[in-house]
Amino acid sequence: MTDRYAVMGNPVDHSKSPEIHHMFARQTGEAIQYDRILVPLDGFEAAVRDFFADGGRGLNITVPFKEQAWALADRRAPRAERAGAVNTLYMADGELVGDNTDGTGLVRDLRVSHGVALAGRRVLLLGAGGAVRGLLPVLQGEAPAEVVIANRTVARAEALVELFADGGRLSAVAFDALRGPFDVVINGTSAGLSGELPPLPADLLAEGAACYDMVYGDGPTVFERWAQAHGAAVALDGLGMLVEQAAESFLLWRGVRPETAPVIAALRGD
Ligand code: NDP
User: Fold this and answer.
1) Number of compact structural domains in the chain
2) Which of 23, 30, 150, 197 is 20 to 30 Å from 165 at the Cα level?
3) CATH code for the domain in which residue 16 is found
4) What is the whole-number distance in angstroms between the Cα of residue 246 and the centre of ligand 1?
5) What is the SS3 assignment for 247?
6) Active-site positions, per UniProt (predicted)?
7) Do 156 and 61 belong together in one domain?
């Protein structure tokens, strides 16, 4: 029987994960089936247990179940432990293992695919929700000189600073107190989903700065357009992160790393 994988979420019909994993499977010659599973809001644990009891091999978890997946895992990879959220589940030695490939996905897209170094750089994170929390352990592993978290609700940014304290190299700030310049700015707010942008000073970016928006859509996002208008050398949307986190999950499940560039190009319709 073909090995079965799926993405669980609510809603889930927008998810591009089946398309991405089927492209990976064709490219690597791995035989897999990958479905979308819409899980009732109060039915996550039962759905996961049923999936693995029926012989399912691995799951991706999306909104709003990543924290529940973290709690359900028998053991967790270090990057997932600190992220407080799990986007990848699989069984190993009879145990449910939780991992989080989102942060690694973003960092690989920036550093490996686009040559943007993070070591020694001043990095600004916009937002303090689940996506930023998931990124922090991986980002800190890249040894940036400094990381500043700016969020509309400053208390949420301060809570992350407390959680990820890094010898004074991590701090929180309100948008109206934000001062550049930054070498790398990552937008992890969901403001762009409604066409909005956090209030950013015009002189935020250092020369040659790279900007990354976790959001993606058809055409440049609001933040990408802001970045281009304010002198960024590189402005990227989050489609690469989406494909890279999927590749990282595929690697965990199948032991083979797929090529991401052709899949990103196919999704963009290039
Ligand atoms: P959360 O709901 O956990 O956090 C949302 C964040 O956005 C909070 O910091 C919130 O601020 C901020 N925010 C929302 N609206 C505004 C606004 N109008 N102005 C300023 N700040 C705002 O979401 P996630 O962290 O899970 O996700 C964040 C984004 O990242 C989403 O758009 C999601 O689609 C994207 N994402 C992309 C991935 C990819 O693979 N490309 C993977 C994961 C996420 P406050 O705390 O004040 O409410």
Assistant:
1) 2
2) 197
3) 3.40.50.10860
4) 19
5) helix
6) 66
7) no
